Amino acid sequence: MEQAVCRARAERRREQRFATEVSATLNWEGTSQPVQIRNISIYGALVSGAWLPVVGERVTLIADHLEVCGTVIWNGPDRCGLLLSHAVDPQAIISQEHNEVSDARSLTLREILPGHYA
Predict the structure, then answer these.
(1) What is the pTM of this model?
(2) CA–CA separation, 80 vs 3, rounded Å?
(3) At CB < 8 A and 24+ separation, what contacts does 71-75 make?
(4) How many CB atoms lie within 10 A of CB 70?
C-alpha cells in the first residue's frame, strides 16, 4: 500500500509547473497568513510568505478562482511546498495573475498641480 502512495505522489510531481506571482491566503489551525503563489501544478504549489506552517500541517490555500486543501510537504525559511488534495487548473491561476497585471497597467495618473499627480 505504501509503495502505491509513493508512486501516486511521484506521478503527481511529474505534472508541469507554471511560474506565477499570485497573491493568496494560507489558512491553518486558526491562523491566516498572506502568501504569494510562486509556482503551481495540478497537484502542488510553492508558496512564499513571512510565517508558514510546519511540514505535515493541513492547510487551505485561497486565491481568486481557487480554494483547495493541502498538506505542507516541505518548508524553508520563507517558502513551503504544498501537496494539494485534488487536481486544480493551473491555467486559471495564471490567468488571474495576468488579469492583476492588466488592471495595474490601466492606471492613469494626471497632473493636478505642478509636481502632484492623482
Answers:
(1) 0.71
(2) 24
(3) 73/44
(4) 23
